[in-house]
Specification:
Length: 487
Amino acid sequence: MSRKVARNALWNVGGQVVSLGVGLVALPILLHALGAARLGVFTLALGLIGFSGLFDLGLSRALTQTVSSSLGQGRSRGQVAALVWRVIGLLAAFGMLWLVALWWAAPLLVDRLFSLSGEIARETIFGLRALALSIPFALAATGAMGTLEGLQQFRLLSLWRMPMSVLQFGLPVVVSLIHPDIGWVIAALAVTRVVWMLLWLTQLHRLLPREPGATSSRADLRHALHFGGWLSVSNLIGPLMVYADRFYLASLFPPAMVAYYTVPFDTAFRATSLPQTAMNALFPALAENQARSEVSTRLLALTHRALIVLALPPIVLTAVFAHSLLAHWLDTSFAVSATPVLQLLMIGIFLNSAARVPFTLLQAHGRADLTAKLHLIELPIFAALLVAGVHTFGITGAALAWTLRVALDTTLLYLAAWMLHRPQRGALASGAGLLGMVTAALLVAVYVLSAGAQWAFTGVIVLVCAIFALRLIHRGGMALARQSHHE
């Protein structure tokens, strides 16, 4: 089972590498074509897309968990297919409601939240309404993707994500070069969401077609709705805590200044998202093996090791050399304002990656209610930290508030998982201790060491992680080779 998860994780990482490369190429082109202010609006539109976890009310994640656990319990594929297509229909219906809401709210968002006026305001309203039209298609696509993950079709998902990532960024880039109107650029982004839906529904119909006469179990539907209901609370608060800082900053500062925060934030997330992408393969495996505690323990131990060796090198390199990277990628003036933001965010992103381990374990066992309740506790704390941080330190204070909130979230999730999952306590405790030591080392590397010592320390970290990463990749490659031989 651990080899199967490693194989699926490798496919996930491969698809994400392509998406990362496309984004790194696209953002400088968009900056030069649109300017800092319009690029700031574009990143806010990406933030709205990030709220898809809110729009689907948790049902796509519920499909992953329900499909995995149902097939693991021996349910018929006909029953599972009936449930899946029923839920996707519900998602499309929810999408129509969100379409109307965003269409109506677009002028209010532009005027009162983004504080835009004149030509850029008119362009942004047009773009947001185009994005609204794509919501039903996007929600149907997320339901199909959640089901494919539940079927553990990570190879298929990865192979198709690669060309789709090129389209997702490539089409807005082409439009920006022809007509640098942010409204049309966002509209191009919306068109890609429709293409995503057509692709994933076609693949789902091929793998899990609706069987005549098969009906979904009411108990399974209730479970999916209950799980999704609690998950929708997390999916409301989670993205809110991820993206609220940029919208709060947009209400206080001009778009060009907001870009000093949003560009490092989005880039850092993409540059360090490979371990989190790989961890998506863990969720259906844990859901399928809820009754096999020894399998879950092995998976958790493997995940902690893989998380560190995959996440730490890009994070420490980006944090230590933040100014140089930003100056070469964008320009020196941009790097001056964005460097302290990026360094703080890298600490938070590492902790956020670590939090995915207990978060995934809890949700794979159906405890979406618990993760939602933890988010409810964290929300007012984050709001207070954000207001105080921005008031005291400006844009850098927002990065500090976000990182402190993530540290609290990681601590609470590990504590909750340790209390509820006795068989996995040893794996959770050792993993949390190791992650704590690595975080302390990261802080020392960024804020304590001199320039020469930073080079040496960073080199040692990268070398050690590379050795262990090669061992993990070798094991995954052997698993891929065996799969190809059997096929």
